[in-house]
């Protein structure tokens, strides 16, 4: 019997995006037979990465292992100053310097990008898609967006997540 595929849901906040990640996990768990886990980047006490810093960091290695062991991702993060939240950029940098090849945590994996933002989150969605694709991740065309004026469209989220799990099962 084939090993179950693993989806890692990654939240860049303790608040609304973490709640969104938990809700999306429930949708996946109720509809498919994949292993899911949610991590909150705030739980990883990573120092600010600076060029030349010692890269042997146990916390960063643990986070890198989570990414390397995943078959797919659901990223939940807000738009921050018109782009990515710093905690997400810092985590990605640490992952890239603690794997054998800097793309090992991301390449040939599928991802859905989700956001819970005060505004539309569009700048985050566009910038993050570009970064993930550059790192070798295959990003699903549909995103999941929650704003102050728009709650989670559950049916749309179910379709998007179904497409992700369907691709992982091939």
From TrEMBL:
Describe the location of the NADPH-dependent FMN reductase-like domain by residue ranges. 8-148
Query: Where does this protein come from, organism-wise?
Result: marine metagenome
Its recorded name reads NADPH-dependent FMN reductase-like domain-containing protein
Q: Which InterPro entries does this UniProt record tie to the protein?
A: Flavoprotein-like_sf, FMN_Rdtase-like_dom, NAD(P)H-dep_reductase
Matching SUPFAM superfamilies, A to Z? Flavoproteins
Gene3D superfamilies hit by this protein: 3.40.50.360
- Which Gene Ontology molecular function entries are recorded, alphabetically? FMN binding; oxidoreductase activity
What GO cellular component entries does it have?
cytosol
